Amino acid sequence: MNLEFKPVEASDLEKLNGFFCQRPNKTCDSVFLDSFLWREYYHVRYAISDGKAIQWLMEDEGVTHSAMPICTEEDLPHYFYEMVEYFNKVLHMPFKIYLADEEAVEYLHLKESEDFEVIEQEDLKDYLYPGDAMRALSGKKLHKKKNHLNAFLKEYEGRYEYRRLCCSDRDKVWKFLDRWREAKGDDVEDHLDYEVAGIHEILKNCSKLDVRMAGVFIDGNLEAFTIGSFNSLENMAIIHIEKANAEIRGLYQFINQQFLIHEFPDVELVNREDDLGQEGLRKAKMSYNPCGFARKYLVLQKNFVAEE
Description:
By secondary structure, this protein is an alpha+beta fold. It contains ten helices and 14 strands. The chain has helices at residues 13-16, 32-37, 76-90, 102-107, 131-136, 143-155, 170-184, 191-204, 251-263, 279-286, and strands at residues 6-7, 45-49, 53-60, 63-65, 96-101, 116-120, 126-130, 160-164, 212-218, 221-231, 236-244, 269-271, 292-294, 296-301. Strand 3 and strand 4 form a beta hairpin. Helix 6 crosses helix 9 and helix 7 (170-184) runs antiparallel to helix 8. The longest helix has 15 residues, at 76-90. The protein starts with 5 loop residues before the first strand and ends in a 7-residue tail after the last strand.
């Protein structure tokens, strides 16, 4: 099979971006930036098939797997089974997909298939929120968030500045990240260090990437920043990164709201990614009253027999 896989690079955006957002998919994986951010953690490689689809190879704890092809919905069955064949005949192993989006699983009727086992990855579902509610923080269910926001505005009046970030701000972000990571200490999951490394790569290559970034400065010091991208088909903002000084009450609420108001004023949906099964993150994401979830699945090929 003529699939040549190579690592994901920032310079690939122009070549790959047109493949994304061609079919329904509300996960954070529906845009290029997520694959770029986590390329080192998952050893992400890609191949372009027939000039019509992106195929993926990744690794997690030494296990090779794939992701759903990036293509149109009508082409999805062809390219899905192309990768099944690649795993079976080239890699000589059963096909496996992590983080398969619900729309693709349903379109391919994988849950009904005798050839695949489909298991929901409950801890990896993305949280979805209505754009209007997140920009206004209105209503009883978001009253506490609005209180935190108002407390921030009152205490730091005249001392804060929300600002769109550009490539020239990367040194400020790096210094903030160093402080943020140091405050976390050693008792954290290793994915955090890969996330920090991924952020560094985004900042180094931000002129090549389709990325929106903003920060909040207090007394001239960067105390919060966020990175997002846009899924045009779903009219959805995806918030990949949001970091803030947790000692400053209301700062998270402020940057969350202002980023959407300034960078995504018209989006209908906001994807704030998953909680990784962490109870603290789950409580924080649920406290914003999600309107739904972008569910993801593990797809495993059954009854595979390696050819002699």
